[in-house]
Model the fold of this input.
Amino acid sequence: MAPPNIHPASLSLPPTRSIDIPPAATELAPAAKPVMSPTAATDHSRDRRQGPSKGRAQRLAILAVAIVAGLLSGSTVAASAQSSDVEVTANPSTVAVGEVARVTATGLGGLETAGFGLSNTDGASLSADGSTFDTSATSPVTDGSAQVYFKASEPGTYAVDVTDGESPIGDTTITVTADAPAAGAQLTASPGTITAGQPVTITASNLGGLATANFGLGGNSGDATLDPATATVTDGTATTTFTASEPGTYIVDVTDGETPLASTQVTVTGADPAPSMTTTTPSSTPTPAPTGTPSGSVPSGPSSASQPSSSRRH
Done:
């Protein structure tokens, strides 16, 4: 049996469908290489040759910044370490009302000045030179050390603070009693107030078994002297003589050669004026001659007119 004769036009095909290509497929296609102009190609080639040099310069710059930052960080740490090394002491740490104690701060490093203040200013005061007392004082730093003088008019416990000008870096406490301490070295001045040029006897007592005692001047030393500066200790006592020709308040210390043991102060006022002297000046008017014939004088002889002639005319 022969196959049926089918005309192509009579065949019907199913409708065509469009195919959507996902965006990811387009990303897989290689990007077209841009076409460079001759000038751009030349610059690109030069940048590739200079690339390593620029990279080295940048790395060196970063290294230099890191080194400077490290140095700055090290100096900051060093400054903090100096503050932690500060030590503040008071000698003596217990005084009677009106007595003077010396406050010393050490380990101040590179500071030029140190500030001293009081937590309780009622009845207490500080002085850098021993002559002018106030509620605070600023003292120059020498070899990492600074000192001030303390005294109080009321009993109690006082805290003395030390600062670098802004931040506290150390402190100590001083006990002030109504009576003189029962133990420890004592230093007295007799008399305590003098006029310039007068001597003062300085006596150190309760020196224990010391063989010698060293006397010194703190704060406003001026032209004051101590004689002797080193005295022999007898029965726990040593003496020296203080003199000064300029008015002011002077601090006298006694030490065992290294450690301060006690201190006292001497007030010197202006010298009394010297008495005036009256000088008599002799008169320049001449004394008149006496009248009459002085006694013992020889009367003069007759005048030549009354005497006879020695020759005659013939």
Notes: The chain is about 15% helix and 35% strand. The helical segments are 23-27, 38-84.
